[in-house]
Amino acid sequence: MFNPRPSQVEVLNYQSGWMGVSAVPGSGKTHTLSSLAARLIAEDRLAEEQEILIVTLVNSAVDNFSSRIASFLRGVNLIPGMGYRVRTLHGLAYDIIRERPDLVGLGTQFGVIEDRERSRLLMSSANAWIRANTDLIQSLTRAEADASTPRFKQEERWNKLVVEVGGAWIRKAKDLQLSPAQIEEALSALPERPWVVDLGCKMYADFERALRMRGELDFDDLIQLALEAIQRDPEFLARLRHRWPYILEDEAQDSSRLQEEILRLLSGPNGNWVRVGDPNQAIYETFTTANPQYLRNFLRDPQVRALTLPNSGRSARRILDLANHLIEWTLEEHPVPELREALAPPYIFPTPPGDPQPNPPDAPNNIYISRKRTSDEELTAIQNNVQKWLVDHPNQTVAVLFTSNRRAFDFYQMLVQADIPCVELLQSSAATRDTAVLLHHILTFLVEPTNVKKMVSLYTAWGKFLDQQAELNQNLPVPPEIRQAAAKALTACSRPERYIQPAAFDDWLHEQEPHLPPPVLTDLALFRERLAHWAQAVSLPVDQLVLTLAQDLFSDPAELALTHKIAQALQTQGRYNPTWDLRDHAAFLQNIAMQRQKFLGLSEQDTGFDPDQYPGKVLITTYHKAKGLEWDRVYLTGVNNYDFPSAQSYDEYQSEPYYIEPRLNWVAEALQRLEAVAQNDLAALFMEEGPATQEARYSISGERLRLLYVGITRARRELLIFWNTGSRKNCLQALPLAALESYWRSQMEEYPHAPSA
To answer: Residue 200 to residues 83, 129, 180, 191, 381: CA-CA distances in angstroms?
Structure first.
């Protein structure tokens, strides 16, 4: 039973028109929006062919909304699944294009390229540009950086930069609705162009050519073409407006210009459009064309009824105080005027008396801000602290948040080695990586079946997999001493063929019978059976080979489905890389296993995550992936002036590579020049370098303020904030953290018990 608060009742009383809702973290916005959708359906406002359209940001939220609306409808004796459609913005765009592909010059068989293939295309184009511009690259590379860095590392750095510049140029050009041909036409009169402009044009042209050859779109195309479709055909737009008389939008702070325009057109000037979001949680500007200013402007529109959901029962009051002070300090005391609007009200208020979600009580010292530590000391301190805490809190949840996947994965491995129960939510799930690891070892062995070292590596991976399966099924794993003895014996097998496919009188395993215990011989015999079976399948196409391996290894439907998805990915790679052999496919799997390749699997960790399912285990993830989640105890890491800069003269920025002269944010410099092309201001292409980098510093610093706010508001009961001196031991405490520490110390002196928010 949903008992709404007074502020939620205001939202639920919505009747028609445009409404905007600023919702603080933990305010129950998803529950409120779901309830509103169910109420509109229950009131019989829809014709038979009409639906309420609910638009959200990520796929996991689609499932969340669908299940909540269904629950509300069942509560009023209505059939769930009818009268509403829940889609991501990209999913909605796909639906629009699929219905009328002719409006944008597409056939009915278009596809959408996956992120990993998009990355591969960009990498290929970057390599080509680098090979064609070696003299330019040499002239831009700082002499001291060039002298002290191995050549392969120089190439790796430049490749990363070129991919970043090219990828950002493509995304921005599509947001500006500029094709490669339109940009080239605008630049045709220029005798020369800046190198970042040349790079962006070349990468964009290469990328679009590759997409056309495949008959595919990317996710940015979906948004651009969906908008074009509804702009070109008024009758089609009118039909969609009739179909979706109510549009409810979640996470509106993450909309881009084109995404907002699609929903604005679908709603119409007299339509029904509800936008819910929190500009203080806009943390994706760096990676997308999203901008929280679009929602802020909407909320200020005289046509819009602006409301707030200011109450949150998620966190203890001291934690709410800390988050509120970060807003207040930013508004009133931040030393950089350009950053004083990075955070803004509404402030977070605790839930009123009698609320069904009362705030957790404050415990003594439930907020801790660490002293100065090195990078390694920070991880060790957190490991020791959380290990002790778990002993006394086996039924509570805990998370450690990082700014990078790589550092988070390193910490995860530390906990695994220390036998501390943990789970991680990173680029791909542990289930996906474990599967990729095993398949990688099998394919690597099949490339060289007489390589003893690879055979032993495969045996070790296979044994680990079987032991994990045994534990999941509550069976006893094979004792480690048996695995160790078997691996030692295999290492001494100088001719693996005598083991894998022995002749009648030349059987290596038979010769070992006097020397090895029966359990070891049994395990080696079972492993030999598997090797022989896998070797018979080696001539199959790689996707069929992987599916054959899956039938041998897995019985759980989810594991089989995941392997099928991996097989499809390998098939796609093979189609676009006809020269690839098993060695290349094995390397692709290794990239997934080592977090170098993003791969969305099918496990809960990949598609949706419920922290409350993991009490007594340490959850390791990034600040970005933690958005929308909450834990009893939260550790924030790396809150220094490198990961959380504040546009101070002593701050450094990851986006300004030190090995290039001058040291600038070349993505920002390129995009500023692309904006000049869009405005037909060609003289601005040759503007002084630097102002775009400074503007990017403000943007990055503002987003990092919001990221810190998101991190703080993940904690229910206890919050621990750590900072370190970085890899070069020269980082300082982040400026906003210093302000929070000063505030917290004054509060503890004045109010030894919990102050109210």
So the answer is: 45, 10, 10, 17, 44
